[in-house]
Design goal:
Order of helices and strands: HHEHEHHHHHHEHEHHEHHHHH
Radius of gyration: 21 Å
Number of helices: 17
Strand content: 5-15%
Strand order of the largest sheet: 2-3-1-4-5
CATH topology: Rossmann fold
Largest sheet: 5 strands, parallel
CATH superfamily: P-loop containing nucleotide triphosphate hydrolases
Shape: globular
Length: 375
């Protein structure tokens, strides 16, 4: 398993530096790193067993995967979970990304069967733990071990994910974690060898003949690198107004900062740094997509998805020459019907995080022009 040691050492150094140090945060960093590396060691051992018990995974092809991308809070999770209703796709559940080894999949499947025979006490305990673990995110991003989820944890294992900012809010000082595309080629190849093995394991275990369906909202900084690994990848890019997506993402991070890194909220420093990062992501995607094959890229406005999710899914299928089968369409109609009844209680604005519309507008002028976003 790949690990970017420079990022790890930098985060530890920053956490204990005079600039950012607090006893509470330092303790939490220690309490995170110890179980994290125990988990990582366990997964590494299970992945070694994969080579012994399931060596054929190394020959698993990755043909034309479908990636749903966009800057965070742009409807990627919703659209991903709609497409996941179609049995022709293989997709990650959250627990798959935490335990990316075929041996783990098999062990958990066996444990699940035993648990059901006993009346599912383990499932009830896991549900309680999950609800407490994600407390505060209920109205922002609903997730859990069995939910369709992003593969971001695979990059967390490598210490190369923007999600590190939940505990280490030093966005300006984590260059590699924020932008894998700017890392030296040698390191990017090592990372992609690890990433490819994760995707192969997953497809081999969950559906060798299926299409890999991915949702990655924080992919912008590594899209070029992943495209070099998967040149036939197909992309659905969901686009939302920056005035809405940026404060929504900050509010999600702030829930965690309140308990894990309270100093991040001082003078809105981390809020501004996260906003600047998302602006960079908007611009990076804008530049990359200029050279992306038109038949493998579909852009969809967030408003279109919200207004008619079912029609949006049909549009995705038409764009990539896929058939909407009747059984899937009936499940899609049922799910989108329930979604229309949902009303978010999540409210946010740029101003509450020390940001302004003028600042975002000036940083993202090319984006506002391309999508004719209102001021």
């Amino acid at each position: 398993m790949y690990l970017h040691y420079p990022t790890l050492f930098r985060l530890i150094r920053l956490s204990f530096s005079r600039k950012y140090f607090s006893p509470r945060h330092a303790t939490l960093v220690f309490l995170f790193l110890v179980p994290f590396f125990i988990l990582r060691l366990f997964v590494w051992c299970m992945r070694l067993l994969d080579h012994l018990f399931f060596p054929a995974f190394r020959r698993q092809p990755l043909h034309a995967p479908l990636y749903i991308i966009g800057n965070p809070r742009s409807g990627t999770t919703f659209s991903h979970r709609l497409l996941a209703l179609d049995g022709q796709f293989a997709w990650f559940k959250l627990y798959h990304t935490i335990f990316p080894a075929i041996t783990c999949y098999k062990l958990f499947a066996l444990a699940g069967r035993v648990d059901r025979l006993l009346g599912s006490p383990g499932r009830r305990i896991l549900s309680v733990i999950s609800n407490r673990g994600f407390k505060g995110w209920e109205t922002i991003h609903r997730t859990g071990p069995e939910k369709a989820e992003s593969d971001e944890m695979l990059f967390m294992f490598a210490m190369l994910s923007p999600l590190l900012g939940l505990l280490f809010p030093f966005f300006r000082e984590m260059d590699a974690a924020m932008f894998v595309d700017r890392m030296p080629e040698r390191e990017r190849k090592k990372l992609m060898a690890y990433y490819k093995s994760c995707l192969q394991r997953h497809l081999y275990a969950t559906g060798p003949d299926k299409i890999l369906l991915q949702k990655v909202a924080l992919i912008a900084g590594r899209l070029d690198t992943i495209h070099s690994l998967l040149p036939d990848m197909r992309i659905v890019h969901l686009v939302r107004h920056p005035y809405e997506s940026i404060p929504s993402l900050i509010s999600m991070f702030e829930v965690t900062w309140k308990s894990l890194a309270p100093r991040a909220r001082e003078n809105n420093r981390a809020c501004r740094e996260l906003a600047e990062l998302i602006c960079d992501y908007y611009l990076h995607l804008h530049e990359l997509e200029k050279d992306f094959p038109a038949d493998r890229l579909l852009k969809i406005r967030y408003e279109e998805l919200v207004a008619d999710p079912r029609a949006t899914v049909h549009r995705i299928y038409r764009a990539f020459g896929m058939e909407v089968r009747p059984d899937f369409d009936s499940r899609l109609a049922e799910e989108t019907g329930r979604a229309r009844k949902y009303r978010s209680r999540h409210r946010y604005s740029l101003e509450q995080y020390g940001l302004s519309r003028e600042m975002i507008r000036n940083r993202l002028q090319p984006i506002f022009e391309e999508y004719a976003f209102s001021d």
